[in-house]
Amino acid sequence: MPSPLRRTKARVLTLRRSVANALKLTIASSVYVYRWHTTQPDGDSRSHNGQTLTISHPRPLRRAPFPTFDNVHAINRLPLELLAQIFIIGSVADPMLPVTVSHVCRKWRRLALRTPALWRRITLDSRVDMWKERLRRAKACPLDIQLVPWFISYSRKPRIRLLDMATVQWYMHVVMPYIHGWRTLDIVFSDYSPYLWNAALSGCCSSNKAVRAPLLEELVLLYRTNDDTKEFLLFSGYTPRLRRVTLDGIKLTWVPSLFGNLTFLDYAHHGFSRGYCATREVLNMLRVSSRLVELRILFPQKRPLHHYSHSDPLELAPVMLMNLENLHIKAEGEDIPFELAHLVSLFQTPALKQLSLTDVNQWRSTFPSVRPFFYTYSIPETLHTLRAEYGWCDPNVLVPLLPTLPRLQRFISKQWGLPMQILNLR
């Protein structure tokens, strides 16, 4: 076989002109340069044979010009506190924003790692190790916990995922040791799977003081297709800072130490009780949460459940909501539910300013029970704004009602096939 090619002579090491010039410049700049100048001797100079010896300063090294203020990007001129606040606001819409900004440059990464509030939002999914690291970076900052059926992947496109009991319990196990630092808890289930509430809330239901949530301010629990009639007592009955609650498809034990300080309640009845029994249950809830400022109430369409409770007609005492200013009454069936009409007839809201009548399904025709509804529900004279949509819009009922409200300033109506109509009365 032929032998491989070999060099017959060794290559001579040579330096290019540019490399040689760079070396000369470096060496020359580090050595003192002696300059001899022929001058006339004077009394202050030291001379030798009529010549004066002058030693000049060393030549400085050539460096890149220092960046001026005009070369700095505009975002780097912002104070660090303002830049960190921008990142925190952006992380509300995109939970992966903290990771993105921490990979832009060293300055942003240092700022992101020193801002615990930037890592407070925990949207649980299969990336458990990443969420554990974010919990560590959040330090003592109150946490926002989310477990929702959709998540934003690395491609920034929302994707729907199916959750089962084992997966939910695995996710919640990550954040349960930090329950004392929860600020918000948002759990949403869209598809049916058995025992989801048991898996999600089992760690929160205990008489032990370790499961209390002293920093919790907002609670969202949504699972419309739930068929579990179990009643849950959360956080050992202690959430002194809880102000906002949104519920749908779950039955909770309504105690004053949990819900006594609420100012906002968006409640959709679970459907395990109907008729007078459902009305009594909601009234007892409102008596506990008598400090409400905004209330949204909905009795969903009747579902074919096998277990629900009835009760005979009862004389129920009215409930007084002294601070209630905004009332949203929602209906999603072909007519106004009996429970809803009976409930509002027992309201006393002396400070009510806004009343919204919402039709979830946006029916083309009006509800058959609109006229009896306004006969049983006495709207307070303090009302400033009245809004009626779709099935609630009956001109024969609403138009004669307007002159009876002396402080009414605006009436808003929305009917099928017509633009929204706004009538300013003041």
TrEMBL record:
Ranges of residues in domain F-box: 72-122
Organism superkingdom: Eukaryota
Pfam families to which the protein is assigned, alphabetical: F-box-like
Transmembrane stretches, start-end: none
UniProt protein name: F-box domain-containing protein
Source organism: Amanita thiersii Skay4041
